[in-house]
């Protein structure tokens, strides 16, 4: 996870690590389940070293081992503001797959259509999982919105595979 | 009905369907064999023109094969005369089509109860069942509406309720989301999911990956033949978080 995500979650108010974790969980739903709880503290430690956050020991709550409250510094705030205006671009890894088909066909090593089929199987399994997770989310949940994004991405990938399939299907004279 | 003890509802062997002759011969379905188990959802996916609709028609007894056999619950469709075949279609198979095929002049509930009335059920029993099914597809409050007053997704849900009215052994769906926008597709997806959970047996032919992804088993079809088969159940090799750009 990016450091900026943790920074931005802190922008609301000075918070304990576990509060940030809860905010992440809320936004990610089932996708946050696999998250490593320690990761957020590792990131907070780095941010503290970099001077982007300060940690203060909070008093009381003897049952909570985690008594540090983290707050953004001025440069932390600046970084968050910069990150929010940044346009980030997803990195779809299409070229590798495309070149795999081209190379397989050129060398006669494998049937490009079999490669397309294998890829489709995996994408459909993921689509099934993402779709089920999305349908299990209540209406208008933040996590549901993220899952919808995954579903749409997978659909786009599957549509591209259809184009690959058409391209690599040997033309038959069917007249 | 001659019910087989095993769990196969639908079975096809060496199915073929050819149109035309000589130079113009088209093998729409070219040697297809498949088994569908009770309670299973199977999707057949392929580009348009691959023969998947023709296959569905052969499986549902809407069309006779050029060669090969279909058994529904152990009954050989090829051995049935027209009258028995149409009775089997009416009583044992539910059809869902891309274009809904609802009767425009009948209300939603009248559309749903029609096959039950044709099967000789009493009007009262047919109505009760139709109302129950409309409730199940979330359209109890639309029972008195004509199809023209319903959205595409609602029309397809009425058509699905109609397909279930005779408690069929299998529901055959031909591009059930083909005429629907994304939101209505989700309505139908949810409904198919609930049918699956309720133990219905479904065969869906489609090129819509979303509806295909609801299946337990997916069969790829090209040029009239099955070219690929896979189980979609049993999880993925990656986790969803990774798809969203989150590390585990």
Question: What do you see in this structure?
Answer:
- The complex is a heterodimer of chains A (175) and B (248).
- Chain A has helices at 3-10, 17-28, 37-49, 74-85, 94-107, 112-136, 142-168, and strands at residues 15-16, 53-57, 68-72.
- Chain A has 175 residues and is mainly alpha-helical.
- Chain A has 2 domains: 3-85, Arc Repressor Mutant, subunit A, CATH 1.10.10; 94-168.
- A 3-stranded antiparallel beta sheet of chain A has the order 1-3-2.
- In chain A, helix 6 (112-136) packs antiparallel against helix 7 (142-168).
- The model of chain A has no long low-confidence stretch (mean pLDDT 87).
- With 248 residues, chain B is of the alpha/beta class.
- Chain B is built from 8 helices and 10 strands.
- A 6-stranded mixed beta sheet of chain B has the order 6-7-8-3-9-10. Chain B has a 4-stranded antiparallel beta sheet with strand order 2-1-4-5, covered by helices on one side.
- Chain B is globular, with a radius of gyration of 19 Å.
- The model of chain B is unreliable at 1-5 (pLDDT under 50).
- Chain A binds chain B through residues 1, 28, 30-36, 90, 113, 117, 120-133, 135, 146-147, 149-151, 153-155, 158-159, 162, 165-166, 169, 172, 174-175, and chain B through 23-24, 26, 47, 186, 189-190, 193, 207, 209-210, 212-214, 218, 220, 222-223, 227-228, 230, 232, 235-241, 243-248.
